[in-house]
Amino acid sequence: MNKYFLLSVVIFTAVALTYGKIKLNIVTQKTEDDVEIPETFDAREQWPDCADIIGTIRDQAACGSCWAFGAVEAMSDRICIHSDAKVKVLISAEDLMDCCTQCGGCNGGWTYDAWEYWGKTGIVTGGLYGTKDSCKPYSIAPCEHYMEGELPTCGPYQKTPECKTVCDERVDIVYNEDLRTGSVYLIAMDDVEQIQIEILTNGPVEADYDVYEDFFSYSSGVYQHIDGDYVGGHAIKIIGWGVEDGTDYWLVVNSWNAEWGDNGYFKIKRGTSECGIEYDVVAGLPNL
């Protein structure tokens, strides 16, 4: 297995049924005859009481931790969805990135290991940089990703912060009591309908794809790779799909803050595994 690096974002793993010591199950939720797949879908509209969680745009900052962000964002969404919005928390990218040493860190990581860690060890709550309402908020300040704006430009990777199994001293939360756990499974690879059914049934999923130079300048529309060199891989969260000007697309939440792209979102062509977007899809269900 290889770990791939991309300037100020990271990276994913190649699909395998056995990954290291992890035995992964490929899940087929239902057959296409069991569910009607709509032409367009947005998880924020499907579960409006969880829209604030699903639509939260985070910032991995100058750290190659996209593998952690895609995971904890989907976990947070699924906790809200499967609790009927009774439990609304942001799962901590910081805790996952710092403490899951086998998963990775600021120099890249593995999406499957992230979900397996959620299942076996658990991850505490943690909001955006500077927030004071969770156990372990993100500790690396936001920055501009591949664009000019009000924030400082993202520089070299930060060193992965030290793992601390205590909560922020500003909150009255006990670390071991705040751990949230769940399951882990793969969605059938390169099966668009199964990815759609999984999102329809259980909520957003984590996926990864190859990144080329022309992706950095995305601002609107449906992205398709046209030119530019391959620069690495990136992990994200898929929350829905649709059709624009006759092109099928996935609706994706990125982790480069709301100033990048289309207010932090982007669309990428659906149905042909554009840049490998439909090959590595992983998810799980929360323990409530």
UniProtKB/TrEMBL annotation:
GO terms classed as biological process: proteolysis
Keyword Metal-binding: no
SUPFAM superfamilies, sorted: Cysteine proteinases
Pfam families listed in its UniProt record: Peptidase_C1 (PF00112)
Keywords per UniProt: Disulfide bond, Hydrolase, Protease, Signal, Thiol protease, Zymogen
Record SMART domains: Pept_C1 (SM00645)
InterPro entries: Papain-like_cys_pep_sf (IPR038765), Pept_cys_AS (IPR000169), Pept_his_AS (IPR025660), Peptidase_C1A (IPR013128), Peptidase_C1A_C (IPR000668)
Single GO MF annotation: cysteine-type peptidase activity
Coiled coil: none
Domain Peptidase C1A papain C-terminal stretches: 37-285
Signal peptide: 1-20
Protein family according to the UniProt entry: Belongs to the peptidase C1 family.
Protein name: Peptidase C1A papain C-terminal domain-containing protein
Organism: Zophobas morio
